[in-house]
Amino acid sequence: MAGFTPVNAGRDTPGPGRREVVALALVAPFSLVVAACSVGGDTSRPSPESDAEGRPAQTEGSDAGSQADERARTTLLADVRDLTSATGSVAAGGPGAAVVAAITQVLADQASALAPRSEPRSPEPPPPATGAEQPAGPERLVTMLAAASTAATSVLPEVGAPMARLVAALAAGHAVAATTLARAAGLGAPSGVEPALVDATGTRTGGVAPVAQPVPSAVASLSTALDVEAQARYAYGVAAVHLAGEDLAVALALRDVHDDAVGALAGALEPTAPESASPPRDAYRLPFPITDGASAATLGADVEDGCADAWADVVAGAAPGARTGAASRLVARAQQGAQWRYRLGQGASLVPLPGLSGRT
């Protein structure tokens, strides 16, 4: 598969594995860079512990973990259904109506991913607002989405690894939906939601978060994240040549964000597995020609989606206490990808489960 491949000479090419998949598989959208990777290996099939959507497989001796997963699934599915009902009460044609319609579809996809196997996979659409009910504004829906994102993040330490990946993706999907709707409706940024690390003017909104010392199960996913973050850093250097004004400021700030992530990841990997933290390449082949501002912005959206994929796998590989930090990086990357799509006029193009959607 042609894609984002290293082109600098004079360095050994890594052997087959997760990093080779990442280096060879970046195509538009960039979110496919780690599509073929599971947390513990480099197979394109779901891991034995989960199916393609993060549903835990039924294995002997896993009753306690399965119970925790099912409790979380039940609670989070109820939140999604409450949100779906709330979308039906938002005034049609009001501020952010196109985004509300997109959120309704996103919630349907999320409900399908969370529903137990015995339940139908396609939930009923939300009922329309009746004459007895005054259509609500988007403020209430934004608040509910932000709260649902926080609720999903809070259960990360309690669930099994495959379920943690799904829960983190769900939290990111809610966070992006809340931010996107608030922007479209002219509201302030939702409280309690991890923002994009660089705002629309190119100003950084947060510092460098530390990366927890990895447990053995996290080394492979952190190594992949290191590679993907290095690719993102390079991509923004290329994109910046074709951008101007605030778009240029955003790209340059994001290049620094990904540079910081490369440093944090390399530092976390070095004490436990120095051989897994190979130096980033000097250059990479881009997935499509970058010739103007639109293609540069599209590249920005793609690389952020790819970074979200990598951090979703880090969530699954991390120790329970370190999952929240990895999930916050997933949310931040998903927010940044949504911001690029907004700049491209695709503000209502939402990803249901950032880090999972579109992966095979």
Descriptive notes:
By secondary structure, the chain is an all-alpha fold. 51% of the residues lie in helices and 0% in strands. The chain has helices spanning 18-24, 63-87, 97-114, 138-154, 161-184, 219-240, 245-269, 293-317, 323-343. The radius of gyration is 20 Å and the shape is globular. The protein starts with 17 loop residues before the first helix and ends in a 17-residue tail after the last helix. The model is unreliable at 5-61 and 125-132 (pLDDT under 50).
Write a compact overview of the structure shown:
This protein has helices at residues 18-24, 63-87, 97-114, 138-154, 161-184, 219-240, 245-269, 293-317, 323-343. The chain is mostly helical and 360 residues long.
Helix content: 40-55%
Strand content: under 5%
Look at the structure and give the mean pLDDT.
79
Give the distance, in angstroms, between the N- and C-terminal Cα atoms.
Answer: 15 Å
What are the defining features of this structure?
single chain; 360 residues; mainly alpha; 0% strand; globular
What is the strand and helix layout of this fold?
Blueprint: H1 18-24, H2 63-87, H3 97-114, H4 138-154, H5 161-184, H6 219-240, H7 245-269, H8 293-317, H9 323-343
